[in-house]
Amino acid sequence: MSEYYHGLIVQPDCHQCPLQFDTKVLPDGPSPTRLCFVGEGPGYNEVQEGKGFVGASGQLLWHLAEAKGVTRDMVWVTNGALCKPREVRLSSGAILSETLVKSMSVNACRRRLIGELLAVTQGDPMAVIVPLGNLALQALSPRKGGGIFKYRGSLQNIDLQELWNQVNI
Known about the structure:
Layout: E1 3-6, E2 28-31, E3 35-39, H1 44-49, H2 56-67, E4 76-79, E5 88-89, E6 95-96, H3 98-108, H4 110-121, E7 128-131, H5 134-139, H6 160-167
Parallel strand pairs: 3-4, 3-7
Antiparallel strand pairs: 1-2, 5-6
Helix pairs in contact: 4-6
């Protein structure tokens, strides 16, 4: 039997992230679960509501999912990064672009994401994890590179335990 959970299961590695003091949008959903949606990072609406996939893109996602009989209460919802990406000015005056910060924040959150998914799926190899965006896919892939469109319509096996072992070396 699944229970609804909202919060952190594995602590993020915020000291390696340029967004370390920003508001985090925490993951939520049923735990254990066999279905997870992973976005790249929250947007404005998600930060305002403290919940993932509530903006325009999220509304479209839920509309499409519900057409297939999948409701939000059936899905673990998380993001590669917990904080909304934005341009960051360093104390040196250098500016990190929003695109670079997004990539850095997903990389800093990777261990947290993999551990979280391993926990909520209980390592079930039949669990379905749907990455929604290039950075979400890259956070879940042992190989770097290649865009998400390369994998459109295909199923890829992800060994979360193996990924967990790799990020904890």
